């Protein structure tokens, strides 16, 4: 193979990348806050929601 060859590898089927897409319903005020955070950090709304969810799950305690 030559250094100039273009190598194209098969793409994983959708859903096998470790991510799952789903819908969630939230209050408009929360969306405004997330959008403001998105603007100030340069991160997407989706990325921020993932970060916030990971933090919340790691700092959540379930009582019986």
Describe, in plain words, how this protein is organized in 3D.
With 64 residues, the chain is mainly alpha-helical. Helices cover 44% and strands 0% of the residues. The chain has two helices and no strands. The chain has helices at residues 28-41, 45-58. The longest helix has 14 residues, at 28-41. The chain is extended, with a radius of gyration of 19 Å. The mean pLDDT is 90.
Topology:
Layout: H1 28-41, H2 45-58
What are the key terms here?
single chain; 64 residues; mainly alpha; 0% strand; extended
The average pLDDT value, as a whole number, equals 90
Classify the beta-strand content into a percent band: under 5%
Whole-angstrom Rg = 19 Å
Described by strand count, sense and barrel closure, the largest sheet is:
none
The coarse overall form would be extended
In angstroms, what separates the terminal alpha carbons? 61 Å
The unreliable regions are none
Helix content: 40-55%
What is the string of helix and strand elements?
HH
Number of strands: 0
Structural class computed from helices and strand pairing: mainly alpha
Number of alpha- plus pi-helical segments: 2
Task: Give the gist of this structure.
By secondary structure, this protein is mainly alpha-helical.
């Amino acid at each position: 193979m030559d250094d100039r060859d273009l190598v194209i590898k098969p793409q994983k089927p959708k859903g096998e990348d470790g991510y799952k897409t789903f819908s969630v319903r939230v209050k408009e005020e929360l969306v405004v806050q997330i959008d403001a955070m998105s603007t100030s950090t340069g991160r997407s709304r989706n990325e921020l929601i993932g970060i916030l969810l990971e933090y919340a799950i790691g700092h959540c305690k379930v009582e019986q």
